Amino acid sequence: MMTENRQKYPILKRMLQFIAAPTVINVVLPVGLTVVLFIGAVFFLTLPSFEANLISAKQETIKELTSLTWEILNGFEKKIQTGEMSRSQAQQLAKEYIRDLRYGPERKDYFWINDMHPTMVMHPYRPELNGSDLTNFTDSKGNRLFIEIVKAVKVDGQGYVQYMWQWKDNPDRIVPKLSYVREFKPWGWIIGTGIYLDDVQTKIHQLSQNLQYLFSVILFFIILLSLYTIWHARQNEKKKNIAETSLKSSEERYRTILKIFEDGYFEVDLAGNMVFCNDSMSKLTGFPKEKLLGMNNRNYMDDETAYKVYKTFNEVYRTGKPNKGIDWKLSRPDGTKKWIETSVTLLYDSDNQPAGFRGVVRDISERKTAEESLQKSKNRYQAIVEDMPSMICHIRTDFILTFANDNYCRSFHTTPDKLIGQSLENFIPKEEWVKVKNHFLSLSIQNPMKTHIRETVLQTGEIRWKEWTDRALFNERGELTEYQTLGRDITDQKLAAQEKEALEKQLRHSQKMESIGTLTGGIAHDFNNILSIILGNTEIAMDDVPEWNPARKNLAEIRNATLRAKDVIQQLLSFTRKAEHQLKPLKIDLVIEETLTLLRASIPPNITIRKTVHEPIGMVMANPTQIHQIILNLCTNAVHAMENRKGMLDIELSNTFIDKPDLKNDPGLSAGNYVLLEVRDNGEGIDEGVIEKIFDPYFTTKEIGKGNGMGLSIVHGIVKNHSGDIKVISRINEGTSFRILFPIVNGEYEKEKKSSYEIPKGNSTILFVDDEELIVQITQKQLERLGYHVEAETDPLRALDRFTAEPDLFDLLITDMTMPQMTGEELVQEIKKIKPGIPVIICTGYNDKITEAISKKIGAGGLLMKPFGINELAVMIRNVLDAKD
Description:
Among the domains are: 48-203, Beta-Lactamase (2-Layer Sandwich), CATH 3.30.450.20; 388-489, PAS domain (Beta-Lactamase), CATH 3.30.450.20; 588-743, Heat Shock Protein 90 (2-Layer Sandwich); 765-884, Rossmann fold (3-Layer(aba) Sandwich), CATH 3.40.50. It is 47% helix and 22% strand. The strands form six sheets. The protein has a five-stranded antiparallel sheet, sandwiched between helices. The chain has a five-stranded antiparallel sheet with strand order 7-6-10-9-8, with helices on both faces. It has a five-stranded antiparallel sheet with strand order 12-11-15-14-13. The longest helix is centred in the first third of the chain and has 63 residues, at 197-259. The chain is elongated and about 175 Å long. It starts with a helix and ends with a helix.
């Protein structure tokens, strides 16, 4: 039947012969098997391996990212240890910083933090979990994922955990996720981030589809090429026999050359099977030549390299263009690997059809090792440079920037792409460029490095100080190759040094004020003793001179001058904070009127005083003596400013209200009602250059002998102690205005009680003790004129002996506080041991350790501050004795 069909259908007969021909079988079968094997290898070996490698790479990525974030927490912990911030501040800043960290293609991958409880510390996409107990929190499959996370870190301090979680910021999509977590022990935190396994599957699926499409195209072209090859093979078979003899002769010469060729030579067919190689190729691969022939290239390369070689060979096959210099790893049978460089070209058959590939192979293992070492060294250097806190940049000899680390860029608020390739001149002011350029040009082989500090103004206007160390690099021939600059921001150190200098200045000022206070205290004691002698003698003389005698008026002036001297002492004590002043509700306009009455007599006739009071003035909490000092100082300064011209001295009082918007100019005040006191003159004015210094102690613009620089500083201190504020406005040759604000208070004005005209007298026996002989004499005479019996002593020890001899003789003890051999306090204590109930009055010129309260605690019934008048002394004696009765 078959025979009949063949005879009947000659076309079918020819087709069967064609298919059964050795050429067809030899071409189609290997190609088909190769394609099947290749496709199988790709889908069953390469793709699974690629998937595993992709997951492994992503695992390493999230591990590295988590470790970097862990270092951020460690940086905050170091700041806690150095005292720069508290733990709560550090943890809050760390949460805020890590909450905003994003990575990934869409910048949606994130980090979260929970603790070992577990409790959620921070989750950027699930803020509702922050602070929640996660012990029973489960994913969509019922896994208690945060318990698993805690278990993972308890074993090794870190690890991977797989669970179900929402897709990034989309809570409606739940997908598998693999996360890496790491414990930060100092805070008991666990920080983690993860990858979505759907990402991996999506990439594998896309790759699989692309490969299917590629293989379909390749298979189609292979079939076409196979058919075309078969057809051509049949056509060229006749020519083959003719050229065979010539070919063999040519090949013999060709193979002789290849034997002595040091580089490896190979020929493979289109399927990658070795069809020819020289001895050098055999030595490179490590396979015997007879075994290498017919071997597929996959036997001496791993899957990744095979895929790389396949793409290269396919490109050569597709384009027909040779490929020069592909690097790949060759796997030898002994397990070692060699880096080789291959140049490959297409191999054609006798019909000029692609039959395979030929190439030359060169061992580049030593070169590759050197390149890898160089790259590792470069990477280490890059990592070190980027991690350094210093600013680093490299500059060519023509001042073009070739490298700048992140800190350098951040310090100038720019990015590397805006710096690299630019001239250094573009970033330095023109007026400084020549100086900077000459600085670099001054570097030499003998002096290749210099350090200098330069002030830098950033784009934001902020001023920073930076210390730069510039180094010039030279080659072995002594030629300049580049500049390297290392800088560090020393603004904090600079500010700290300035702050230290300011604190030292403040300390020196405090020490100076303390010295002044000590000096003032000594002056007050001695000066008040002197004033006591003057005042006592003056009052005795006034008592002896009749009213009609003109000398009595002179004596009264002496008495007033003594009291004004007492006020000078009070001013000094006020300035050095040695004296306390009682504040009480006060009508300032009355004090001003009293002060102006005293001033008018001493003001030159060329100056007119004008006082203006608007509406009823509010009550302020003040000390009358200190308000008197303010008016006296300001008016005296105004008079001096107008002494060479016709002047107008204005004193104006009014009520005013300061609202909150006005407080920006008066930050020390509160909103409310104030009394405004303004003292104006039309004098020479104050220069702008010194107007801010006028309240400083010892600063004065007056001639020597006309001022000591203390007046305005005392005024300023009094105003501040009264919760007020003082401002000055002045223009040269137009005048000066001082504006003072005092807060208004609710209260009733207490008029000072006038002392009775009649001086109280008595007949008691008084023991009076003072180390100043003149004070003893004067006071004894005054007391005796009042009817008292007085026994006076200048030595407290003799006074104690006298009292011990007859304690019942004495009704009252009056003693000075500061005396040699025994203080007044010690004398009182000894006398009280003998006669506990005896009344005591303590007198002092100045003692910063005695107050009214302390004197009572010692056992004294009264305290008198020198100098005191006879009236003040008589009243005090009467009060103390009457209190005993």
